[in-house]
Design a protein that fits this description.
Layout lengths: L1 H41 L5 E6 L14 E5 L8 E11 L4 E17 L14 E7 L38 E3 L4 E8 L2 E9 L3 E2 L3 E6 L4 E8 L2 E3 L5
């Protein structure tokens, strides 16, 4: 009787090990899918990019029998700072989960060298270049002196403050009703669609576009007549 009981325990232990091994492999696949997706989304960003995916809890692993994984960013999120990345199964069980990750970008950016007032036109002495973590700030942080000098501020700014596009006055680069090019960028490629802007937006601001096929997407006003929907659709 004891021998039989020991045999059952041994079999259960083996089964547990097999299940644990399968889950571990599934966890690695999911982390790899999230990492690869974020690498693609951040390709072309200025500076050095580091991606860290938070290890998955065993209770999250609902995709262990999935033959193919597809990662995606929820609408409105960008691959910048702390993000939540969705992973869905496209070949196998109809299941999905969400993983946490951090995208860290180190590079150069513009900060204020001295106090400025609202409505002031920035000169070369007002700003300087700093090295640091870009993702510690909003994603509209100004990266070059060329994009800062000659611009007019919306508000008073303090020395040492990182300069953002939101702090600068810009003419609308997108007008409501305007025909625009909608660009989605990936690893080494870009796809361009045509659409019509549903609202006016300055450069760096969020705008909504109705594509020629009727679909409505959200994106960033990148320049006159161009909306970038990479990571925001």
């Amino acid at each position: 009787m004891n021998k039989t009981f020991s045999t059952v325990l041994f079999c259960l232990a083996c089964l547990f090990c097999m299940v644990s091994s399968a889950l571990a492999a599934s966890s690695q696949d999911i982390v790899a899918a999230v990492t690869s997706y974020l690498q693609e989304q951040t390709r072309g960003l200025p500076g050095t990019v580091t991606i860290v995916v938070t290890p998955l809890d065993a209770r999250q692993l609902t995709l262990e029998r999935c033959g193919q994984l597809q990662a995606f960013l929820p609408q409105g999120q960008k691959a910048w700072g702390r993000v939540t990345v969705g992973v869905r199964c496209t070949s196998g069980p109809n299941a999905s989960l969400y993983a946490s990750a951090r995208v860290k970008v180190e590079g150069s950016y513009v900060k204020l060298a001295r106090p400025v007032s609202g409505g002031q036109t920035l000169s070369g002495g007002d700003v300087l270049i700093e090295q640091g973590e870009l993702t510690a700030y909003q994603d509209d942080i100004v990266l070059t002196l060329r994009d800062a000098v000659g611009q007019t501020t919306r508000q008073a700014l303090s020395p040492g403050q990182a300069l953002r596009e939101a702090y600068l006055q810009h003419e609308n680069s997108i007008q409501a009703g305007q025909a625009v090019n909608v660009v989605a960028r990936g690893g080494g490629f870009s796809v361009v669609n045509r659409g019509r802007a549903l609202n006016s937006a300055t450069r760096g601001a969020l705008t909504r576009v109705k594509l020629d096929n009727g679909q409505i997407v959200s994106g960033i006003a990148a320049e006159t007549g161009v909306v970038d929907v990479t990571g925001t659709r």
